[in-house]
């Protein structure tokens, strides 16, 4: 195989490995992100319930204050009942007493309803706190695992970068410039194999003359359709 072509194939593989590191790290970090988002969602739900409980307690307090006022009013009506003399005054006090008692019943019902709401939401908060604790534990476990994996990837990346630096030091600047020019638009498909007489960059069939040149591997051959650098697959070579 042509020395320069061999170097280009190796450089293309190294560049692809380097470009794959970021998605690999992002995929690993996504696991932690999802776990942290779950924990955050539980906390937001607990905060919303806490706000609801505070509002319910405030309403309950207002009803209790109103109930105390009504109780005092009923006592006052009872005192007045002993002093009234006319039927009209008795009827007016009775009506006032009935209204006050209805309001007392409503206030008591509302207090009971609010107490149930507070109890239910407090129970939900307790469940959420358990879920938050579990999510935190999960996040810590994932983070520990991620730190180890990222460290391994970073070590692998340093090794690949070192291999690339060594390869670049051996390459012709002219060949390297030619490679980088194609890589600007072709990315990691700058150097591609030929399979079944087709370029595996653009997937177009190449002519017999170009194919023969690729099979010989004496020179650097580019695809006549897309301009990518071509090399033969082991299977093609055997065929």
UniProtKB/TrEMBL annotation:
The lineage of its organism: Bacteria, Pseudomonadati, Campylobacterota, Epsilonproteobacteria, Campylobacterales. Residues 198-230 form the C4-type zinc ribbon domain. This is Uncharacterized protein. Residues 86-184 form the CT398-like coiled coil hairpin domain. It comes from the Bacteria. Residues 111-170 form a coiled coil. Keywords: Coiled coil.
């Amino acid at each position: 195989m042509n020395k320069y072509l061999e170097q280009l194939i190796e450089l293309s593989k190294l560049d692809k490995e380097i470009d794959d590191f970021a998605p690999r790290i992002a995929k690993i970090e996504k696991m932690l992100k999802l776990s942290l988002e779950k924990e955050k969602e539980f906390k937001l739900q607990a905060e919303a319930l806490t706000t609801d409980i505070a509002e319910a307690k405030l309403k309950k307090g207002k009803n209790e204050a109103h109930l105390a006022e009504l109780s005092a009013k009923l006592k006052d009506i009872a005192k007045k009942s002993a002093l009234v003399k006319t039927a009209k005054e008795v009827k007016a006090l009775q009506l006032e007493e009935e209204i006050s008692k209805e309001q007392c019943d409503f206030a008591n019902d509302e207090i009971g309803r609010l107490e149930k709401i507070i109890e239910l939401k407090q129970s939900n908060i307790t469940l959420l706190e358990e879920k938050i604790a579990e999510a935190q534990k999960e996040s810590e476990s994932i983070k520990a695992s991620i730190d180890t994996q990222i460290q391994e990837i970073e070590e692998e990346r340093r090794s690949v970068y070192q291999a690339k630096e060594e390869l670049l030091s051996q390459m012709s600047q002219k060949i390297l410039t030619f490679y980088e020019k194609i890589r600007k638009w072709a990315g990691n498909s700058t150097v591609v194999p030929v399979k079944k007489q087709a370029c595996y960059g653009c997937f177009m069939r190449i002519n017999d003359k170009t194919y023969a040149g690729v099979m010989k591997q004496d020179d650097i051959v580019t695809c006549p359709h897309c301009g990518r650098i071509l090399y033969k697959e082991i299977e093609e070579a055997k065929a």
